[in-house]
Write a structure and sequence with these properties.
Elements: E1 2-3, E2 11-12, H1 17-34, H2 43-54, H3 80-90, H4 92-111, E3 118-122, E4 130-137, H5 140-209, H6 219-249, H7 275-285, H8 287-308, E5 312-321, E6 328-336, H9 344-409, H10 415-449
Antiparallel strand pairs: 1-2, 3-4, 4-5, 5-6
Helix pairs in contact: 2-5, 3-5, 4-5, 5-6, 5-8, 5-10, 7-9, 8-9, 9-10
Amino acid sequence: MTVTSLNQTPVPLVTSPRWRGLWLLALPLLLAGCAGTKSTYTREHVAQRLRARAGYELGAARTARAPAPALPNLQDGLSEDETVNLALTRNPAFQADLSALALAQADLQDAGLLANPVLSGVTAFGTSPASLALNFASDLLWQRPGRVRAAQLETQRVAESLVSRGLLVSRDAQVSYIDITLADERLRIAREAIAMRAEVARIVRARYRVGEASELETVAPSADSLRAVDDYYRARRDAQVARLRLLATLGLDSVNADSVRFTAAPAAATTVPPLPVLLDSAYAARPDLWAARIGIEGIGKRLRWERSRVFSFVLSLNARLNDPNPVHLGPGAAIGLPIFNRNQGRISRVKAELEQASWQYLALRQTVNLDVREAYAQYEQAAQSVALWERSFLPSLQDALRRSTSAFINGDFPYVQVAETTRQLLDARQRAADARADQRRALARLRYAVGGRF
């Protein structure tokens, strides 16, 4: 850049002492504008954390108008892992939550932007020369780093919150899947009950035809058979409702619920660590606890940023143009005096937010402690119930029903005793199925409570 005047040779302004001072004055502003605002806490980070903590895939990002991901083969049934992956990739509510990460990234980008310089000018009038002034709001030189750092921490907090939300979606999908398999098990028991009741009613009618039983004795078995059919209809309705709820969560409303089979994998032996180990793991790994800690740190950065806003500082570059004289350049500055407004309101608000976030973190730790202890107690109780019903009650009741039915066929045992033994066996089978489902639910809740798989 050079300045020329009449009857004068061009003078390079960059080498003049005044211009060197201006460049040194503008250099911090340029460096502040070049500071990066990209964050590593992207959707890929959330996907990696979910994969590491729970072993599930988040799927590729897509818009609301984009076609849904391809479905797995529904002909061979849906496994539990496939159901959870579908929930993470197709659940509309979770996809809406993932949009919060893009919002945080946009806020981070906005935090790094500098105010545009303002160019003002006055034309020549009379003997007054024309003048130009280029003003820079330079208070961002020391405010921008704190503002960007606070926005970066907010992006990290949102990412960890989404990991926690993904684990919650996984847990809910697992629980819904367990509810369906339990409903199918109850439906199978109801079918067996119909067959068992019908067989007993057939025996009583056969004995009535040969004169070994009265007509009155055939009423109770027939009523029990009808009740078994009604129980079957109720169990079938519950199974259909459970399927419809899960398919709606997976975004499969158009799929025929009765055409989808849910293949329950055999229960694998799971070693649950002791309660103190689970609590330590939860405090160290729960994503929502991480998000709360990061949120507190981010509010601290915001507090420092609000305190830095007490002073306002504007740099200016003034130029006077008055032919035939050369251009006269001169730097200037405007400093806001913090006499009345020292940003007291914003600083007090952020302090209150910091205090609130600290208490919320302590409350969340208590919630985590309670979640782990409750899920652990439920798992222990369910495991004891499974062992009690499957190893003790069911074998003894099956043997008792076999012997009582044989004695009833020979006429040595009353029907009332057979009916009661049958009822007890069916009830034991349902209770054993409920205990197995409770154990699997408690395991899913326990894994979520500690922040992922053991």
